[in-house]
Amino acid sequence: MATWQHNNSPGFTLVEVLVAMTIVAVSLLAALRVATQGTHHVGELQARMFAGWVAADRLAEHHARGDWLPVGVLTGAQRQGNLELGWREEVSSTPNAAFRRVDIFVFEPAQASHFLAHSVGFVVNPSESRR
Questions:
Q1: CA 61 to CA 7: how far, in whole Å?
Q2: Going by C-beta distance under 8 Å and a sequence separation of 6 or more, which residues neighbour residue 74?
Q3: Which of 3, 64, 91, 98 fits 128 for a cystine, CB–CB 3.0-4.6 Å?
Q4: What is the DSSP letter of 70?
Q5: Which fold has domain 14-129?
Q6: Cα 97 to the chain's mean position, in Å?
Q7: Closest Cα partner for 127 from 68, 39, 81?
Q8: Is 4 helix (H, G, I), strand (E, B) or coil?
Q9: For 35, how many CA atoms within 13 A lie in the half-sphere containing its CB?
Q10: How confident is the model over 78-107, as pLDDT tens digits?
């Protein structure tokens, strides 16, 4: 007849091992989620940086050409980096007739209501500034 002998050596029970493995699994899933969100935020920051460059480029282009923009809305698209970005310029008059205010909004074409960048600048009427 076989006899059962209880070994009093120190060690972990099956329940303790399963609880420890569950804690490790939950921790690893949380770390994976944080890494995934970090990657998403890097992409958003890159898109915002490119959009800021598009807005600055639009205003610099108007200044370099000496454009006198008509009051109203201008729209277009520009490729920056690996992104195709849309832009909208809202030109409005100012109390000083020699200046026009230009609000530039840059967005991804699929989400035109979500602006990645907004820049404000002014253009000067070349004929008014020479007087």
A1: 84
A2: 88, 89, 91
A3: 98
A4: P
A5: Pantoate--beta-alanine Ligase; Chain: A,domain 2 (3.30.1300)
A6: 36
A7: 68
A8: coil
A9: 6
A10: 999 899 999 999 999 999 999 999 999 999
Report the chain's C-alpha Rg in angstroms.
30
Distance CA 77, CA 86 (A): 4
Whole-prediction pTM: 0.70
Six-digit token pair at 39?
């990657």
* Maximum C-alpha span of the chain: 118
DSSP letter, residue 91: E
For residue 58, count other CB atoms closer than 10 A to its CB: 20
Rounded Cα gap, residues 17 and 69, in angstroms:
72
Amino acid residing at 126: P
To which residue do tokens 């100012």 refer?
A: 94
